[in-house]
From TrEMBL:
Rho-GAP domain boundaries: 1-195
GO biological process, one term: small GTPase-mediated signal transduction
Protein name: RhoGAP domain-containing protein
InterPro entries the record matches: Quinoprotein_ADH-like_sf, Rho_GTPase_activation_prot, RhoGAP_dom, WD40/YVTN_repeat-like_dom_sf, WD40_repeat_CS, WD40_rpt
GO cellular component, one term: cytoplasm
Keywords: Repeat, WD repeat
Region (Disordered): 523-613
Pfam families listed in its UniProt record: RhoGAP
Ranges of Basic and acidic residues composition bias in the record: 526-540
Natural source organism: Planoprotostelium fungivorum
Compositionally skewed regions (Polar residues) per UniProt: 541-556, 587-613
């Protein structure tokens, strides 16, 4: 027996979710990131010499990071098939050979397949639980990689089941081979029904990778929610838009916006219209007819909706338009600056600009005057905002910061549990913050209040409790996802009505859109609002603004999401979300001890990740 199937040495890393060999997960991770769109993946043979070298290294007990070594996906796919073929007994068990083939003559083959899966050893069940859903996700891109479910079953099926001591009759062998492929095809086609936990994030995983969708030829810059929350629009840097079905992940439509570079979108409830912003123009699209409704001759880099008005960040300041008539109703001048991102609460509008010293301008919504200029916290540009527990989280080219509602710096998040490189966007979903990074990863953050002894060395102590302890906030990443192969810039959360669960859709510079199923045990409760510190200093507005203030009616109807509208969850969606949440079941018991552990060759803690990635 080849050592490729031998237990890993004690020094080797193993996955925290199952007892599967790490090499198997590493292979899936590599193909997920850079091989799903390759035509003929699993069908085209790898380089024999390279595959043999990889196998030899694994047999020696070496822990290979295929992603770090930039291995060729075809070589790794060939290694996976070798992994399966060299097992001492077929994955589906040779002694069950005839029973597997008999499932095809049953009145309900799928039910019989489910019964048979319970007869194989638990280790084989676990491996199939990872492998078959992975093949299903590859098949979703069959229009790109030419590997539909049938082709995948033909290339992988013979490595899962064979008849021990089979006859030399080639005709019989061919017939049996076709039957084996049909059995495996049933599994792949029905992967969601057989292994639902691999799609809805259940079983202790915060989020589970569901799909990676290709179709764009340039970087995916922005996402928008389409009609009735049943469609997702993805925009790329060439101006192309693809409309995806949120339930089936199928491409419904593709067209050219004629905007060259779409940098941001805004999709107000009930999502009948989507605004797409580019450096020179803004276009408004009807999500039911897919037609252009209006073109505004200004650049759009970020949007915030306040009442019946849309605040648009552009070059030279902020333009204010009526969200229904599309007429301009005001302007906030910031001469010489480009507004990169915006966010708002009940009183103030926060704007991140290209100013080299003032990273954030706080603007009074009523008077439209700049009331504070924030120079602290960041040393490089701010890319995005999100509101969490009454505070403002900022994503910067240097790190993340947390400010209170008055602009006071609460926390600079620079510890090595976070991203390496720039953070491009932040989003609030339920009781957690999501961050999207230049390093290709997506991280989910938790904020916890803990008490500690006064003798402890802490930098963010808040209040004295009883004279011997102090309370402070802990900001830590608790889950990480890296299905993308380039920086991730946009995210939208949408409720999957068919599966009755939440999904996160992400867009990346790798030209792909990923879908993640969010666990039913994910905490969807909105955090309590924290009171800000008293304002110590406010700078005056450089110039008084002559535009009229917002009416009380509009103010009471205020609703805002993160700066570029990539990150919000509608109020109606929140109510729907609560309806399906009966209790909070936190799964942090097994993950807290991982935060802070150092992985080999990396200064960052090894966080729990979606299984197989």
């Amino acid at each position: 027996m080849s050592k490729i199937m031998s237990p890993p040495p004690a020094s080797a890393k193993v996955t925290t979710q199952t007892s599967l060999p790490r090499v198997f997960h590493q292979a899936i991770r590599l193909i997920t990131r850079s091989g799903i769109n390759e035509e003929g993946i699993f069908r085209i043979s790898g380089n024999k010499e390279t595959v043999a070298q990889l196998k030899e290294r694994i047999d020696r007990g070496e822990d290979i990071d295929f992603v770090k070594e930039q291995c060729v996906p075809f070589d790794v796919a060939a290694l996976m098939k070798m992994f399966l073929r060299e097992m001492p007994d077929p994955m589906l068990q040779g002694h069950l050979y005839d029973q597997w083939l008999a499932t095809l003559t049953s009145d309900d083959p799928l039910s019989e397949v489910k019964v048979m899966l319970k007869k194989i050893p638990i280790d084989s069940q676990k491996l199939l639980e990872t492998l078959i859903p992975f093949l299903y996700k590859i098949g979703l891109n069959s229009s790109i990689n030419k590997m539909d479910f049938g082709n995948l079953s033909k290339t992988v099926g013979p490595n899962l089941l064979w008849k021990v001591g089979a006859s030399n009759d080639p005709t019989a062998a061919l017939l049996d081979s076709n039957k084996i492929n049909d059995v495996v095809s049933i599994m792949i086609e029905n992967a969601e029904a057989i292994w639902p936990d691999q799609f809805n994030g259940d079983g202790g995983k915060w989020a589970t990778w569901n799909a990676k969708l290709y179709g764009h030829t340039k970087s995916v810059q922005a996402l928008g929610i389409g009609r009735d929350q049943e469609e997702i629009w993805s925009f790329d840097s060439k101006g192309q838009v693809i409309v995806w079905c949120a339930q089936t992940y199928k491409k419904l439509r593709q067209f050219d916006t004629q905007q060259n570079v779409v940098t941001t979108t805004y999709s107000p409830e009930p999502h009948d219209f989507i605004w797409s912003g580019a450096p020179q123009t803004i276009k408004i699209w009807n999500t039911k007819t897919y037609e252009e409704v209006k073109e505004l001759k200004i650049g759009g880099f970020c949007f915030v909706n306040i009442g019946e008005q849309v605040f648009i960040g552009t070059e030279g300041g902020i333009h204010i338009y009526n969200s229904t008539t599309y007429e301009k109703e005001g302007e906030i001048s910031l001469p010489g600056l480009l507004v990169r991102a915006m966010e708002a609460d009940e009183k103030n509008l926060w704007a991140a600009t290209t100013h080299r010293e003032v990273f954030i301008h706080i603007i009074d919504i009523q008077t439209r005057a700049v009331t504070r200029e924030i120079k602290e916290g960041h040393t490089k540009s701010v890319n995005g905002f999100t509101r969490f527990a009454g505070n403002f989280w900022t994503a910067g080219n240097d790190h993340m910061c947390v400010f209170d509602a008055n602009g006071g710096l609460v926390k600079t998040i620079t510890h090595n549990g976070g991203h390496t490189g720039a953070i491009l966007s932040v989003a609030t979903f339920g009781n957690h913050v999501w961050s999207l990074g230049w390093d290709t990863s997506i991280r989910i953050w938790e904020v916890k209040s803990i008490e500690t002894s006064l003798s402890s060395s802490l930098t963010d102590l808040k209040t004295s409790q009883n004279g011997t302890t102090m309370q402070h906030k802990m900001y830590k990443p608790v889950f990480s996802m890296d299905a993308h192969n380039d920086c991730v810039e946009s995210v939208e959360f949408i409720y999957d009505k068919e599966r009755k669960c939440w999904k996160a859709w992400t867009g990346s510079f790798d030209k792909a859109v990923c879908v993640f199923g969010i666990s039913p045990t994910y905490d969807l409760t909105e955090p309590p609002k924290e009171e800000p510190k008293p304002v110590e200093h406010r700078s005056s507005s450089p110039e008084p603004v002559t535009t009229s203030p917002i009416s009380d009616t509009a103010q009471s109807g205020y609703r805002a999401k993160a700066g570029s509208w990539r990150t919000g969850v509608s109020s109606g969606a929140r109510e729907q979300m609560r309806g399906f949440m009966t209790e909070r079941q936190t799964k942090l018991g097994s993950t807290e001890n991982l935060v802070g552990q150092q992985s080999e060759g990396n200064s960052s803690p090894e966080l729990p990740t979606q299984e197989g990635l």
